[in-house]
């Protein structure tokens, strides 16, 4: 297996930009309408909006989502943190199960797992013990964090990660307005969602990965959006964002660091670490992205003014990693369509230009999640030829169901065709058992 050395890590970036630790990180998310575990109940202080499964009646699907949240998601976000302690919940994640993923990284860039056992009970006391004397970093704020020493105040983080903040902060967003669902007629012909000329966009405030975003470009999608808004209204959702649809030519996600107020890279001079191109479905759902290391200088120059304007409108107290989604229309005008003032899914590939481009001559890199059956570690054997060459990197693996696993995979390519070819090879191998791969040689 090829040894992975990242260009830098989040821990190194924080130290170099005046953000003082020591740090301990939690990468979990929680919902206001489902318990993840009897000892990890639903969030009532800082709840997130709906994702696809929580309201489903299928208990098997709900159990699957719980295992993804408690298993794969925190692992995928830990890759690239570097020399920091990271909280993981047992029994979904064990120290032994993390050894292989950590072993592929150079020792000084490995994070340090801290295991909290959900089945042991008294989880809040366990969390108090492991965070004592450390500054807490989090992916999503939760009520229990209010009593801890956090880099960012949980309440402030909750507010600035809401899409409502895009509008109220004065960022350069598409023309938008706030609609109160509880005061809106969904049935009548005069409903704003029925009379609004096509196309337009509706967004929930706090739904992740583009869930809760409706690109209403035809009457069928209008019908789907109306049905969704009616459901949200009945569940108590109050406001949504209604925006102009931008006919874009570029959909970019910019990943940057805001240093301490007295550092060179404060919010008026953010440090851009990477500009990725988003991969979306036709419905606007985020499914990943790719980066072109050879084009970074030009892309960073292109978005610099918009990024600097965005960070200048963020609270003066904000420090750390963040991302902003920028769309560019046919006239070249740039609009901010989302702000993720937290860790981003694309963070690892922003640190891998040396691994893919400098060392292997692969200017492009892409990432995605894959499901597969068999043993959780079978992925290393199935993808062994390209893992050995370093063209494929497995950043996280987890068991998410009976004989079902998920993995986050990053791969490099010479061009778009090469990226697509490697992705096809990975998907083909992941869909088959290791015995089948060995038998056919494919």
TrEMBL record:
<feature type="domain" description="ATP-grasp">
    <location>
        <begin position="163"/>
        <end position="373"/>
    </location>
</feature>
<keyword id="KW-0547">Nucleotide-binding</keyword>
<dbReference type="GO" id="GO:0005524">
    <property type="term" value="F:ATP binding"/>
</dbReference>
<keyword id="KW-0067">ATP-binding</keyword>
<dbReference type="InterPro" id="IPR011761">
    <property type="entry name" value="ATP-grasp"/>
</dbReference>
<dbReference type="GO" id="GO:0046872">
    <property type="term" value="F:metal ion binding"/>
</dbReference>
<dbReference type="Pfam" id="PF02655">
    <property type="entry name" value="ATP-grasp_3"/>
</dbReference>
<protein>
    <recommendedName>
        <fullName>ATP-grasp domain-containing protein</fullName>
    </recommendedName>
</protein>
<dbReference type="InterPro" id="IPR053269">
    <property type="entry name" value="Asp-Met_ligase"/>
</dbReference>
<dbReference type="InterPro" id="IPR003806">
    <property type="entry name" value="ATP-grasp_PylC-type"/>
</dbReference>
């Amino acid at each position: 297996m090829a040894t992975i050395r990242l260009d830098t890590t989040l821990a190194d970036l924080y130290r170099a930009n005046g953000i003082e630790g020591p740090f301990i990180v939690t990468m979990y998310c929680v919902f206001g309408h489902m318990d993840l575990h009897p000892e990890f109940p639903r969030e009532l202080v800082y709840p997130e909006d709906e994702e696809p499964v929580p309201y489903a009646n299928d208990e098997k699907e709900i159990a699957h989502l719980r295992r993804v949240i408690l298993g794969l998601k925190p692992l995928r976000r830990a890759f690239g943190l570097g020399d920091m302690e990271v909280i993981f919940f047992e029994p979904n994640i064990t120290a032994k199960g993390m050894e292989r993923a950590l072993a592929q990284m150079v020792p000084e860039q490995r994070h340090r797992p801290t295991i909290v056992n959900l089945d042991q009970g008294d989880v809040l006391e366990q969390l108090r013990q492991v965070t004592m004397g450390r500054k807490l970093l989090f992916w999503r704020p939760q009520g229990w964090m209010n009593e801890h020493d956090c880099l960012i105040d949980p309440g402030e983080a909750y507010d600035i990660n809401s899409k409502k903040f895009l509008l109220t902060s004065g960022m350069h967003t598409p023309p938008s307005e706030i609609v109160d669902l509880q005061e809106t007629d969904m049935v009548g012909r005069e409903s704003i969602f029925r009379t609004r000329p096509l196309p337009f966009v509706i967004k929930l405030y706090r739904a992740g990965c583009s869930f809760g975003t409706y690109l209403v470009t035809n009457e069928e999608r209008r019908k789907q959006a109306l049905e969704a808004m009616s459901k949200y209204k009945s569940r108590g959702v109050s406001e949504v964002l209604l925006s102009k649809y931008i006919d874009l030519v570029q959909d970019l996600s910019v990943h940057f660091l805001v240093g301490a107020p007295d550092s060179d890279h404060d919010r008026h001079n953010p440090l851009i670490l990477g500009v990725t191109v988003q991969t979306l479905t036709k419905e606007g759902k985020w499914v990943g992205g790719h980066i072109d290391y050879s084009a970074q200088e030009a892309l960073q120059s292109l978005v610099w003014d918009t990024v600097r304007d965005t960070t200048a409108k963020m609270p003066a107290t904000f420090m750390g990693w963040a991302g902003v989604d920028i769309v560019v229309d046919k006239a070249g005008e740039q609009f901010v369509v989302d702000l993720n003032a937290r860790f981003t899914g694309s963070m690892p590939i922003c640190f891998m230009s040396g691994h893919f481009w400098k060392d292997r001559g692969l200017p492009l890199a892409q990432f995605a999640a894959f499901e597969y059956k068999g043993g959780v570690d079978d992925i290393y054997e199935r993808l062994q030829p390209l893992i050995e060459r370093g063209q494929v990197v497995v950043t996280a693996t987890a068991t998410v169901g009976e004989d079902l696993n998920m993995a986050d995979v990053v791969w490099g390519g010479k061009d778009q065709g090469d990226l697509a070819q490697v992705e096809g090879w990975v998907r083909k191998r992941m869909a088959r058992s290791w015995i089948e791969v060995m038998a056919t040689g494919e």
